[in-house]
Amino acid sequence: MNPLSLFREQVQALARAGVDSAEADTRAIFEATLSEPMYMWPREIEPDDVWEIEAMIARRASREPLQHVLGKMWFYGLELGAGPGVFCVRPETEVLAKWAIDAIGSQPAAVLDLCTGSGALALAVAANTRGADVVALEKSQEACAAARANAESLGLKVPVIQGDALIFNPQWEAKFDLVVSNPPYVPPRQLAPELDFDPPQALWGGGDDGLDFVRGLVPLIYRYLKPGGRFGMEHDDTQGEAIREIARDAGFANVSTISDLNERPRFVVAQKPLGECR
């Protein structure tokens, strides 16, 4: 079958299903199946490849995330495995990864990633810094397994510990120079169909404003940081003022908000004052 004719048909199928990125997703599925960029596609596609493409397009048309359909996703230049039970990391979170990498620079640093999911943040920091000693924590058994597999496939020595981020670990008191987190924070509202495939515990933050989980987490982050240590956390674009207040109440100073690439306020960053030990 002619690849361009099939390509146009499948783009239309995804567009009819309401997929905004129909052309880009179809191209990704074709390139994954044919193992070639578009300009190198063969004159004719083998029947087995046609079947595989149509099956993958049908999955995407059902609004299954493209990451699940492909079995992989990309974050800060890293290829990560993707699948059911593990949160699909979004490109916006790369802003938080860059902040952490820039904050560490070339200095040795102990780094903690809470609610690591696929390990995306922890692995991006480990892969792009020289002196960072990175540890990741995740409650979900499935996500832990995925994060460990991602670390192994990338050859990165990042321990992934299974545990509840809301339970204080006394061994971590005043241990870390930097803490990052992309915790559950979504407030009650209707979400895109693709998000139905993400684990609910990775999305919903609890409470009317989605910040119940964060209210429990930020004071623990304060205790984990060394004096002068810094933390960065992703949040919803409606939560900036509230989450800055949560950080100040926990004792943090230099509290500010970073915008994502669409100029939406999406990340809080702050510092534990020097001389503070609690």
According to DSSP, the number of beta strands is 9
User: In sequence order, what are the helices and strands, one letter per element?
Assistant: HHHHEEHEHEHEEHEHEE
Oligomer classification: single chain
Q: Label the structural class.
A: alpha/beta
Quote the distance from N terminus to C terminus: 67 Å
How many discrete domains? 2
> Biggest sheet, strands in spatial order?
5-4-3-6-7-9-8
Percent of residues in helices: 25-40%
CATH superfamily of the largest domain: Vaccinia Virus protein VP39
Morphology:
elongated
Q: What's the main sheet like?
A: 7 strands, mixed
DSSP helical segment count:
9
CATH topology of the largest domain: Rossmann fold
CATH class of the largest domain: Alpha Beta
Q: Calculate the mean pLDDT score and round it.
A: 95
CATH hierarchy: architecture of the largest domain: 3-Layer(aba) Sandwich
Give an overview of the whole structure:
The protein is of the alpha/beta class and 278 residues long. The protein has two domains: 3-62; 75-271, Vaccinia Virus protein VP39 (Rossmann fold). The protein contains nine helices and nine strands. It has helices at residues 3-16, 22-34, 47-61, 66-70, 94-104, 120-127, 141-154, 212-224, 240-249, and strands at residues 72-75, 78-81, 109-114, 132-138, 160-162, 176-181, 225-234, 253-259, 265-271. The chain has a seven-stranded mixed beta sheet, sandwiched between helices. The radius of gyration is 21 Å and the shape is elongated. The relative contact order is 0.11. The mean pLDDT is 95.
